[in-house]
Amino acid sequence: MQPSISGGRLKAPQYKDVFCDHVMPLTEMQAQVESSRCYYCYDAPCIQACPTQIDIPSFIRKINNGNIKGAAIDILSANIMGGTCSRACPVETLCQEACVREHAEKKPVQIGSLQRFATDEFFKQLDSEGKNKKTGEKPFTRAKSTGKKVAVVGAGPAGMSCAHRLAMLGHSVTVYEAREKAGGLNEYGLAPYKMTDDFAQKELDFILSIGGIEVKTGKRLGQDIQLDGLKKDYDAVFLGLGLGSTNRLGIEGEDLPGVIDAVAKISEIRQAQAKDPSGSALAKVPVGRNVVVIGGGNTAVDIAIQIKRLGAEFVTLVYRRGQEDMSATHHEQELAQKNGVVLKTWAKPSRILGDSKGVTEVQFEYTAISGGKLSGIGEFFSLKADQVFKAIGQKLEFSGLDVDGGKIVVNDQFETKMAGIFAGGDCVGPGEDLTVTAVQQGKLAAMAIDQKLAKSQGGKRG
Ligand SMILES: Cc1cc2nc3c(=O)[nH]c(=O)nc-3n(C[C@H](O)[C@H](O)[C@H](O)COP(=O)(O)OP(=O)(O)OC[C@H]3O[C@@H](n4cnc5c(N)ncnc54)[C@H](O)[C@@H]3O)c2cc1C
Ligand code: SF4
User: Fold this and answer.
1) Orientation angle between helical segments 157-168 and 199-208, nearest 10 degrees
2) Closest by alpha carbon to 432, among 350, 335, 329, 355?
3) Cα 68 from Cα 449, distance rounded (Å)
4) Domain locations in the chain?
């Protein structure tokens, strides 16, 4: 490791707050004022823009009337991870972009913050078993048992949303998860300044409080369990595997020490934060002085911001096309710049230089579009680097099902070409790779599985 890479770049007390909420939650008064800005539109465009179709005007009206439970039930019955989505959704390109007040005055109703207010306040009303502290009632209950068993593989947003809906419909669910903790990228990937206070695990506990869901961690499909076995032992299977491995750059020097997969580093940072909220584990995370990030999506922006906040001196994010082509939203790009990250566009890495101690420099070639194709123009520049983060996309790790464009092929019921095996979330083709999309697909797949199981016994249950 290069001597310039070390932990403890900040003063000890700074670690506690380095990843505090980047959007502060609303106070009760602020929620009152903000909810009164909604026009409660008929045929509200914000609902159409929400991938889970939450009845947004209805929950906002309930907040305004002081009915927190009603507001939260509106949200959670459409999106059981409404708490995470209120923190992580790119609302500026979804519901808030569609809000009529965005069009009229460039000041949309703060739907994401109101959604967070409703779900956070509602969770405060529940005890550790997910029951209302006053009435002992659970907000979501199970239907009469169908006697059917479903296996869910992957405990990320898609898998857990599917499991919850299946449990609600009376099926018995076993979730198999490869990692040590359930939660998928909610636990291991979302930026720590979006998911403070161990929220991913709190939300998971709430989801499991419905009952009828058993989670088995440390069980990897293809290694500890096999698809054939699951098919035999269960009435249906849902795969919510996400995209487990990272694309390679395919250039010289890629395997030098200090050239790191951005998702793995983000996971290390998230787990350090979860281990010790006082920040002492974060202080041990190795951070370089001159950091280069390669990529143009959310993952690239996230690692750049996180490593800069942990004390890297210079962080440069390099993207091969223009800023307007980056898949990270404008809001995320702005956040990166506000955090001191330098964005450099129209350049691609050509080789990484260094020695056995680690990387020292990255050489880039300027790019341009020529004849409709992106290519290098033969002019080069170098950036000094002791850490290089690769964030050029992820890919499916699992093989054994039909794949198109790197994703599992499913029909409009989220069933794969293998009957009885369903899939959803990042591992399948349709939809953007977002938490909210994964939650919606998991929910829709659960409903399709339920229909199929009901049909298989002539519409009768149990
Ligand atoms: C760094 C990063 C930041 C992001 N930030 C945002 C954001 O701010 N907002 C947003 O909306 N989206 C964000 N996303 C995208 C979002 O996290 C994903 O779209 C979402 O998590 C997809 O959910 P999923 O359930 O399909 O997959 P995942 O969350 O990846 O979950 C898949 C689960 O399956 C498990 N698994 C995989 N293979 C196996 C196997 N063979 N056997 C058993 N278990 C297995 C994995 O361990 C994992 O727990 C981000 C993604 C990344 C990488
Ligand atoms: S579009 Fe805006 S104003 Fe209309 S219902 Fe939705 S949040 Fe309210």
Assistant:
1) 20
2) 329
3) 32
4) 36-124, 149-244+396-456, 246-262+276-394
Question: What one-letter code names the amino acid at 71?
Answer: A
Pair of tokens at residue 265: 């580093």
Please tell me if the domain spanning 149-244+396-456 has the same topology as the one spanning 246-262+276-394. Answer: yes
Q: How far is the CA of 161 from the centre of ligand 2 (A)?
A: 26
- What superfamily does domain 149-244+396-456 belong to in CATH? FAD/NAD(P)-binding domain (3.50.50.60)
- pLDDT tens by residue, 225-235: 999 999 999 99
CA dihedral 153, 157, 162, 168 (to 10 degrees): 130
Residue 462: predicted pLDDT? 47
| Residue where the block lists tokens 């939660």 | 183
Q: Of all residues in the chain, what percent carry a pLDDT higher than 90?
A: 92
CATH code reported for the domain at 246-262+276-394: 3.50.50.60
The mean pLDDT value for 125-144 works out to 95
Write the pLDDT tens digit of every residue in 89-109.
999 999 999 999 999 999 999
| Phi, psi values for residue 350, rounded to 5° | -110, -35
Please indicate whether residue 289, judged by its CB atom, sits closer than 6 Å to ligand 1.
Answer: no
Residue from 80, 190, 307 to probe ligand 1 pocket by mutation (most atoms less than 8 Å from CB): 190
- Residue 6, Cβ density class (10 Å: 0-12 exposed, 13-18 middle, ≥19 buried): middle
Whose CA is closest to 349, among 256, 287, 264, 433? 256
